[in-house]
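Minimal example, chain plus nicotinamide-adenine-dinucleotide.
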Amino acid sequence: MLQGKTALVTGSTSGIGLGIAKALAKQGANIVLNGFGDAEGPKAEIAALGVKVAYHGADMSKASEIEAMMKFAADTFGRVDILVNNAGIQHVARIEDFPVERWDAIIAINLSSAFHATRLALPAMKAANWGRIINVASIHGLVGSAEKSAYVAAKHGVVGLTKVTALENATTGVTCNAICPGWVLTPLVQKQVDAKAAAMGLSNEEAKKVLLQEKEPSMQFTTPEELGELAVFFCSAAGNNVRGVAWNMDGGWTAQ
Ligand code: NAD
């Protein structure tokens, strides 16, 4: 379905980003990976799916590095057809104790990076009259949770940016939508499980249960593979007129 297209997925050396990159690769898209840590393993996993893969290690908190990454992607594959703004970090603390440096980093990585990558991707997408911008927001783009001020503010911002991007391009072949996962058991969430286990004297399994019980009626984690399939749908012809939605995959979190 996506042969000949190129997808750039930010923060795709791990977790949800890697899951989405693999799902798009399975549909034939060439992939540009980004993120910290080991890139060779993820690159090999994508290459094994029979598509071309490249990697750029831009720090998504820096506009100049995002510009270099977008130029690298265009130079390597000609154009970015699908942009998945996924890189993100978390920090948990009450507002009065929230480290200012963590606030700035979360707003930069979780929100401003999506603005920069989007503004740089749009001209080529519009020239081709086809493009897909998929923003990985969160259920925290729709509702709040205590001790996550920067994350909730950034993710609400991402949902707003999604709507404006969709509206500004509504008469073109470029769509923009957001994905809003509930709990997904990635390194980002395992840290929160570990903190709960330590604070409450629980085992890893017990702490996972407590985390789910607080928010998710399904008592199940959403998987990167499931989120990847939603991204594939947004890229399909059936997604042509899906514009500006924030689509939850949250086990019933926000139905309550
Ligand atoms: P993760 O920690 O597994 O992956 C995060 C990715 O972002 C990694 O590849 C990491 O290297 C990269 N990254 C972090 N800082 C970066 C930076 N400055 N520059 C470039 N790359 C950077 O986390 P995840 O759970 O897969 O999260 C991915 C996205 O999904 C995030 O935006 C997160 O907010 C969102 N999300 C996660 C959950 C969840 O339950 N895990 C729920 C809702 C939304």
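The pocket of nicotinamide-adenine-dinucleotide is lined by residues 11-17, 34-37, 59-61, 86-89, 109-110, 136, 138, 181, 183-184, 186-189 (CB under 6 Å). The chain has two domains: 6-182+223-249, 183-221.
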